[in-house]
């Protein structure tokens, strides 16, 4: 896969994504409270019902029997009167169903679909207002979407096993702070140390690369040291193309510690020394997951939007769809550089990202992705 402008001859400026004037229109995370989800079965934070009061963290969800027994028929407070707002088909009337709840959060939306994503997306079921769900999720920040996703998974179950390509995509492309946050959340969520799990599930040079990445200690100085770029380029040449065999630890040291602008400068010098671009040399000297990991780091240094555009394309190319990758990239990059990813996608594949999503998905799943991506 070639990247626009490679071998080095002028890359999109880095950092600087997104450019001034193209910042996300999403509100900052936390600005709007997480919307109540009336009618969830069972309600988050609550137990089985009837008889169990809702959690105090979800205001506005009514419809539970009062202590001491059920009220008389028609005695639920707040029930719509004749001539009022129509009820959703198959959904009981009462507070939380078609009647906005009190408070600053969103309210009145019916329950989320209980089907997981797959094929053409979640199946429609009676009582589900898919348009309302799309409107809510598409206009939330990435942080808020993660909370919605966690709540959905808690209630209905959904997940997949660990994949090496996912580890590469996340650990080899994130900032130091993002990686540290991931390590901390991993410990909080699972009670486990991510480095120990990586050591247990991987091996060899790939293990060492991922362990280096999860430290979150990459140099993030945006100033380029051209003397160091010259030295690193020469060091990489001597560790690979310039000798019989490969000194993998040298590639790990340079690509795992240097800043992305510094690596870009090193790649430019390397092309002159080796008469071959650094990506091609990595192709020749490595294989398997360690090759993919090193290339992911270098591709992000050269053209980060192109890296994610390529990942999106291959998640939809051919038979079937890698829904996990498609969702993850669109959601996590939506407030960072999705605009640049869309532009690079069109440049690389002569079709828009929205067009390919529309042809590869269907139903509410399609509508939700397109609402986030934009046309």
From TrEMBL:
Pfam families: Annexin. Keywords: Annexin, Calcium, Calcium/phospholipid-binding, Repeat. Gene3D superfamilies: Annexin (1.10.220.10). The keyword Calcium applies. Calcium/phospholipid-binding protein which promotes membrane fusion and is involved in exocytosis. Signal peptide: none annotated. Belongs to the annexin family. This is Annexin.
């Amino acid at each position: 896969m070639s990247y626009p402008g490679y071998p080095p001859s002028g890359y999109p400026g880095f950092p600087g994504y997104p450019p001034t004037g193209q910042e996300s229109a999403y509100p900052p995370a936390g600005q709007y409270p997480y919307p109540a989800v009336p009618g969830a079965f069972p309600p988050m934070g609550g137990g089985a019902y009837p008889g169990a009061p809702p959690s105090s963290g979800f205001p506005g969800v009514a419809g539970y029997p009062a202590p001491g027994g059920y009220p008389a028929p028609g005695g639920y407070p707040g029930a719509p009167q004749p001539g009022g707002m129509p009820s959703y088909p198959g959904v009981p009337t009462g507070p939380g169903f078609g009647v906005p709840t009190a408070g600053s959060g969103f309210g009145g939306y019916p329950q989320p679909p209980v089907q997981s994503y797959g094929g053409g997306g979640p199946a429609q079921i009676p009582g589900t207002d898919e348009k309302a769900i799309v409107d809510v999720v598409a206009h939330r920040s990435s942080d808020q979407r993660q909370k919605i996703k966690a709540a959905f998974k808690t209630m209905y179950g959904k997940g997949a096993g660990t994949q090496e390509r996912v580890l590469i995509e996340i650990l080899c492309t994130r900032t130091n702070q993002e990686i540290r946050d991931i390590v901390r959340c991993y410990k909080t969520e699972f009670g486990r140390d991510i480095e120990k799990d990586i050591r247990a599930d991987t091996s060899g040079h790939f293990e060492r690369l991922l362990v280096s990445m999860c430290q979150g200690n990459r140099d993030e100085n945006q100033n380029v040291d051209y003397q160091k770029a010259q030295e690193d380029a020469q060091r990489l040449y001597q560790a690979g193309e310039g000798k019989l065999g490969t000194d993998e630890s040298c590639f790990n040291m340079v690509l795992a510690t240097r800043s992305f602008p510094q690596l870009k400068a090193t790649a430019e010098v390397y092309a002159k020394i080796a008469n071959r671009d650094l990506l091609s040399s990595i192709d020749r000297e490595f294989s398997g997951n360690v090759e993919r990991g090193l290339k992911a780091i270098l591709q992000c240094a050269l053209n980060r939007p192109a890296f994610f555009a390529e990942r999106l394309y291959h998640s939809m190319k051919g038979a079937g769809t890698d829904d996990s990758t498609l969702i993850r990239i669109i959601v996590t990059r939506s407030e960072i550089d999705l605009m640049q990813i869309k532009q690079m996608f069109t440049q690389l594949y002569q079709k828009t990202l929205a067009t390919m999503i529309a042809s590869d998905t269907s139903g509410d799943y399609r509508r939700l992705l397109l609402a986030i991506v934009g046309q």
